[in-house]
Design a protein that fits this description.
mainly alpha; A middle domain of Talin 1; two-stranded antiparallel ribbon; 11 helices; globular; sodium:proton antiporter activity; transmembrane helix; membrane
């Protein structure tokens, strides 16, 4: 979907189908089982859910075009985070306990974004333009906050003594929630008020220009964005049943659910980031990619933490030694990639290799 031109039919058809599907399964009391009919329902659910997520991101992009950067990217990341929190919380609180799902999803988002998506954007941009520029100061802000939040959320739980790892005690989790929200809040202030010039790069040859958006189109996109987000939240429970059944059927590893959720929520935003890189707007790609990682940790961990505390559920956050090494490698590689303000094909390829290693290790640990 594009934020330019007439509104595509899919941007309102899929949200409408999602709401209709929810009303039908609620009225009939349908409970998912992995039969022939259940398989058809699962396929329909996934298609409608993916289409609705794409619709939500499309309307976020339309709004973003009107309000400009860096506020536009913030709308996109917040919309995706709402979807993410809904899916994680619903699956975690389902019939099958999944205390590690939030950890696996957050880690998957970091790996997908900082290696897969960043690598692909840099690689495509390098092939097309040789080198692409961006604001080093903005990238440094993203990375410094991301490294701190990821370490606190995913590494520190393995080394606390109040409770055995990989979990925080209730007091520790409450403290982590507060400092995480505070740090993310200061980052947003830096991005949107104090130093918003850090996150806007001068347009180069081949970059897209802003398009005019009427007030009617803006209002319609805001309404449809809210409907799309609501529809995804309403269908999250059925999606969790499908994930559990399919995972059990194919004997998937524990991290499979987290990877699947991360791919679902990041796919449309990833398409937007890759499209921006192809138009020689790598700064927007970086804003989308690294902004997603920050929003995932800065908003998802506190939201899930509060939900698990209120509902008295266990929340495992600490990564395994293998995953910790991959996270550290991603940190070091990102510092080198975003340290000069210019990128090339080789940087992108290295990131994609690390992502391939991560995916392989999920299925062959």
């Amino acid at each position: 979907m594009s934020a330019h031109g007439p509104m595509p039919r899919s941007s309102w058809i899929f949200p409408a189908l999602a709401v209709l599907l929810f009303l039908v399964v609620t009225a009939t009391g349908y409970g998912f089982t992995l039969t022939a009919g259940g398989a058809m329902f699962a396929i329909a659910l996934l298609v409608i859910l993916f289409g609705t997520v794409f619709a939500a991101v499309h309307h976020s992009e339309v709004i973003a075009e009107r309000i400009g950067e860096p506020y536009g990217t913030l709308v996109l990341t917040l919309a995706v985070t709402i979807i993410e929190v809904a899916l994680i919380t619903t699956i975690m609180l389902g019939e099958k306990p999944a205390p590690e799902l939030a950890r696996d999803t957050v880690f998957a988002v970091i790996m997908i974004v900082c290696n897969g998506l960043v690598g692909l954007c840099v690689f495509i941009g390098g092939l097309r333009y040789g080198e692409q520029g961006f604001q080093v100061s903005g990238a440094n802000v993203y990375l410094s906050v991301l490294f701190a939040l990821a370490t606190i959320a995913l590494i520190m739980p393995n080394y606390t003594t109040t409770t055995p790892g990989p979990v925080y005690s209730a007091m520790q989790l409450g403290f982590v929630d507060v400092v995480t929200l505070a740090l993310y809040g200061v980052f947003l202030y830096t991005q949107t008020v104090a130093h918003k010039d850090y996150f806007v790069h001068e347009r180069g040859e081949g970059e897209d220009a802003e398009a005019y958006l009427s007030g009617r189109m803006l209002t319609l996109s805001i309404v449809l964005l809210l409907v799309s987000l609501l529809a995804v939240v309403l269908l999250a429970k059925k999606f969790s049943l499908v994930v559990d059944a399919v995972g059990a059927k194919i004997g998937a590893p524990p991290a499979f659910a987290g990877l699947l959720v991360a791919l679902l929520i990041l796919l449309p935003e990833g398409v937007a980031a890759i499209s921006a890189a192809r138009r020689n707007n790598l700064q927007k790609s970086i804003n989308l990619a690294l902004g997603s990682s920050l929003a995932t940790i800065g908003l998802t961990i506190p939201a899930v933490g509060v939900a698990t505390y209120v509902l008295d559920k266990e929340l495992k956050l600490g990564l395994s030694p293998q995953s910790s090494i991959l996270l550290l490698l991603t940190f070091l590689l990102s510092m080198m990639t975003f340290g000069t303000g210019r990128t090339n094909v080789l940087f992108g390829l290295v990131h994609m290799v690390v992502f391939a290693v991560y995916v392989f290790m999920v299925f062959v640990p």
